[in-house]
């Protein structure tokens, strides 16, 4: 990802103003949003400004958009510098966005890139004749016809070094070129041979007809013998919320229900059962291990009180540095290791 910054001052035009047509377009976009939300139109206006400026966004165009939308210029700058759809430096008459993402890379995008480097030069620079500049971008969504590039507003797909070089020559010479697949594929139909979805029944309606026939036959047979919902609920009652409409077969014993029946919320038998030691899950240590110390690392730890007045011993050298102590002056680190000693430089520039 290239660094995205504004073009050098010497390339920046002295002024920018929307054309009357684009001014009207801007008003139309702003009117789409509620009052006070005109900033939502920022991308549309930046895009128009870029078109008007010849395919890139000078600083003055960004400021004009900010003024139009009553936004701080830095806010518009943030948008313009974030999205790669906005060019911050001048571009060639034909601006080529080269897709270098995996599907295109697997289908030979590397060779296309070599053509660009040889024919146009480095990415981000306009060719000497002013015709071309290029930028590597992420997937442009035409992976089926990889490798591909976008030139200005059009896609050129199924590229090979040969047909791509010819395409560039034709564009430079002003000859008509073909957009889309360069090998005659229609849209993204299968490459070379059609090997899938060949069953004629997929297209003559017979598959849909078979389904419809089954539905019609089922409808003619009338209702099935299977028990309905109500019958099944009566046969197998399950508890449900009273307002769910489902039959309630038994009352669940909850504390609320017990209280409603005038009983204590917890059954005394259940309470005694829960308190019984027999039900406790605590495990007695094995006799042969009872006296062994708990396993721990070779480090020794001193229990530190949170407050000195609690009586526990207080370490002379606290493990936590006093707030504001520079790291180099802390006597110990949190992990107990010694901190780096101070380095003293004498007047002869010797260290000790
Ligand atoms: S990977 Fe190139 S268009 Fe998707």
Write structural notes for this entry:
The protein is built from eleven helices and five strands. It has a five-stranded mixed sheet with strand order 2-1-3-4-5, with helices on one face. The chain starts with 19 loop residues before the first helix and ends in a 77-residue tail after the last helix. It has helices spanning 20-30, 42-52, 59-68, 73-82, 102-106, 109-119, 161-173, 206-221, 229-235, 255-260, 268-275; strands at 94-99, 132-137, 149-151, 154-157, 180-181. It has 352 residues and is mainly alpha-helical. Among the domains are: 9-82, NADH-quinone oxidoreductase subunit E (Arc Repressor Mutant, subunit A), CATH 1.10.10.1590; 94-181, Glutaredoxin. A hairpin with a 2-residue loop joins strand 3 (149-151) and strand 4 (154-157). It binds FE2/S2 (inorganic) cluster (FES).
């Amino acid at each position: 990802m290239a660094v995205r910054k504004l073009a050098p001052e010497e390339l920046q035009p002295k002024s920018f103003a929307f054309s009357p047509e684009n001014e009207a377009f801007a008003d139309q976009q702003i009117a789409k949003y509620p009052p006070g939300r005109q900033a939502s139109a920022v991308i549309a206006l930046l895009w128009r400004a870029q078109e008007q400026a010849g395919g890139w966004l000078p600083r003055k165009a960004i400021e004009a958009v900010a003024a139009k939308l009553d936004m701080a210029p830095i806010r518009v700058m943030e948008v313009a510098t974030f999205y790669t759809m906005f060019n911050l430096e001048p571009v060639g008459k034909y601006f080529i966005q080269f897709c270098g993402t995996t599907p295109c890379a697997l289908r030979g995008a590397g060779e296309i890139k070599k053509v660009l480097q040889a024919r146009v030069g480095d990415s981000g620079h306009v060719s000497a004749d002013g015709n071309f500049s290029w930028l590597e971008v992420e997937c442009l969504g035409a992976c089926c016809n990889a490798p591909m590039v976008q030139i200005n507003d059009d896609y050129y797909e199924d590229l090979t070094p040969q047909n791509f070089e010819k395409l560039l020559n034709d564009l430079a010479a002003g000859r008509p070129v073909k957009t889309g697949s360069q090998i005659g594929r229609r849209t993204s139909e299968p490459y070379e041979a059609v090997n899938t979805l060949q069953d004629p029944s997929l297209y003559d309606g017979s598959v849909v007809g078979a389904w419809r026939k089954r539905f019609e036959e089922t409808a003619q047979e009338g209702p099935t013998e299977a028990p309905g919902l109500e019958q099944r609920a009566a046969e197998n009652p399950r508890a449900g919320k009273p307002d769910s409409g489902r039959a309630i077969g038994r009352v669940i014993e909850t504390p609320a229900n017990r209280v409603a029946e005038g009983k204590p919320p917890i059954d005394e038998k259940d309470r005694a059962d829960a308190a019984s030691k027999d039900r406790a899950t605590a495990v007695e240590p094995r006799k042969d291990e009872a006296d062994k110390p708990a396993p721990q690392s070779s480090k020794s730890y001193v229990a530190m009180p949170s407050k000195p007045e609690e009586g526990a011993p207080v370490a002379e050298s606290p493990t936590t540095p006093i707030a504001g102590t520079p790291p180099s002056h802390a006597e110990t680190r949190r992990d107990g290791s010694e901190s780096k000693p101070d380095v003293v430089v004498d007047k002869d520039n010797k260290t000790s």
